[in-house]
Amino acid sequence: MNFWSRKFLPLSVLLLSMSAGQAFAGVVLSPNAVINNSLGEFNAGLGVNNLLDQSGLSAPYVSGVTDFTAYTGAGPTHAGNADPGGIPFASPSGVTSGIIDFDLGAVFNLSHFILWGDDTLGSGDGTPRNFSLAGALVSDFSSSTSLGGFTSAATTGAPIPGQVFSFAPTMARFVRFQISNVHGSPPNVNIGEVAFGDTTVATTVPEPGTLTVLGLGLAGLGVIRRRKRA
Question: What pTM did the predictor assign?
Fold first, then answer.
């Protein structure tokens, strides 16, 4: 390798390495289905499917497409129990703890959980208070990863803001939502909606300006080598 090759080749490699990198982007995810509900349902109209239908949200989202940061930053709320579209999930009277298992439909790199509570006809009660999350690649959770334990804030009235909980990015298709207790005095669990956040890693496309500089550097190397031979 001659003098000019030794000088310019490292520069070209450096420019190329600077032109590509990693960017983090997140999207909002809706569970595809509830595959296990140990709490039961207050009645058919207050079933677990109300957790997934977006019917009470002030702003809908497209699962797997809507940007997580932009969506949560806009502060989407859920209608109250007594408001149009505000029908929540409710467990039977006397049930304040239990498990809900979600199937996301595919494996995602999960990093966030959004919980919209419920105001229980204006009393601000019934939202899960202490709960834990676990992620798994198998539906029976025979092998799972703890995503952490969490404590929510009490709901103080409608419209109900979403609460965002973060955890270490974890590959999972199934999520177990284990509720330990609820806020307030109602003898049951009340939840408006849930959603998840997926964190993906993408390689950035080299910027046009960087490519131009790289091209000029390589072209200059070629000219110098031709002059050297002449």
Answer: 0.78
